[in-house]
Write a structure and sequence with these properties.
This protein has 298 residues and is an alpha+beta fold. It has seven helices and seven strands, in the order αααβαββαββααββ. Strands 2-4-5-7-6 form a five-stranded mixed beta sheet. A two-stranded antiparallel ribbon has the order 1-3. The longest helix has 57 residues. The chain is elongated and about 120 Å long.
């Protein structure tokens, strides 16, 4: 009698353990299915019992449901931003072009000295506004995913040559020596946007280097990355500010009187990240700066 009772208890215990494990397995399968649905952008509300694990399952279902709603809202906001950017680009293009045109026409007239000064200032500010709008539109399109980069295997020499050619007249006009070191290296990058990044780095280097200085453009190769260096003999950047200069609209106190709005380096960082690369700076006050754009080789 006692033996039968013990066997019965053991069988009941085994049945309870087996049932509990089967229930746990079902719940894990359901959790896995919920996560799989979430990765595909699908989330469905279901009714669960009130056990501790099922309560967790319920909270996970609510979280996935709210995440799906949030993702939908983000997509809608991106679409609104896309429309807004298109409107800004379209609505400002003609007025700014007219401002630049009329400023040029004014400068060609027989004006007194004060009038010529005002016309030159008007043209300079119009060009600055035009560049600002263009940079903001580019940046917004990158951040919202409206524009996507298409990196591909390509030689670096071509993009370096084209970027340097654009800024050679500006460097010569400021009495700077612009050096470009030829390279045979290849990397994976979007040629158009990488040229945009290099142009921003060259523009900064020329802008902040005093007359008689030097700006150089070269490449160093590593197993995983190619490093494109833009070096200058400018005033350098204090260590405390080096972590801030890639922030949007940040401008160091020492260069507040130099033309600029603080978007260029932020745009360079965004372009580098979109290609699986990154950007760094090495600098010491009084010893110039080197901005390095790292691009993946494969």
């Amino acid at each position: 009698m006692t033996t039968c009772f013990v066997l019965l208890v053991l069988l009941l215990a085994a049945a309870v353990v087996l049932w509990d494990r089967l229930r746990l397995r079902r719940q894990i399968i359901r959790l896995d299915a919920m996560l799989e649905q979430a990765t595909r952008g699908v989330s469905q509300e279901e009714t669960f019992d009130e056990s501790r694990l099922s309560a967790l399952e319920t909270r996970l279902a609510h979280y996935l449901s709210s995440s799906a709603i949030s993702a939908k809202q983000v997509a809608e906001e991106k679409e609104k931003i896309k429309t807004l950017i298109a409107d800004i680009s379209h609505q400002t293009k003609t007025p700014i072009a007219n401002l630049c045109l009329y400023a040029q026409l004014l400068a060609e007239l027989d004006l007194p000295e004060e009038g010529r000064t005002c016309a030159a200032a008007l043209e300079a500010q119009s060009r600055k506004l035009q560049a600002l709008i263009e940079d903001l539109v580019k940046l917004s399109r990158l951040e919202t995913g409206i524009l996507s980069l298409t990196p591909r295997q390509a030689p670096l020499e071509t993009v370096l040559e084209e970027a340097a050619a654009q800024f050679l007249p500006k460097a010569e006009g400021k009495q700077l020596r612009l050096e470009r070191h030829p390279t045979q290296e290849w990397a994976v990058f979007d040629p158009k946007w990488t040229e945009e990044a290099l142009c921003n780095l060259l523009d900064n280097a020329i802008k902040y280097t005093p007359p008689g200085g030097r700006v150089s453009l070269g490449v160093q190769s590593y197993p995983l990355f190619c490093r494109v260096d833009v070096s200058d003999t400018g005033p350098g950047i204090p260590e405390a500010e080096q972590s801030k200069i890639f922030q949007r609209f940040y401008r160091a106190g020492a260069v507040q009187d130099v033309e600029g709005v603080g978007i260029g380096l932020y745009l360079v960082r965004q372009i580098a990240q979109e290609q699986g690369g990154y950007v760094k700076v090495r600098s010491r006050p009084g010893e110039g700066s080197t901005f390095s754009l790292f691009l993946p080789r494969d």
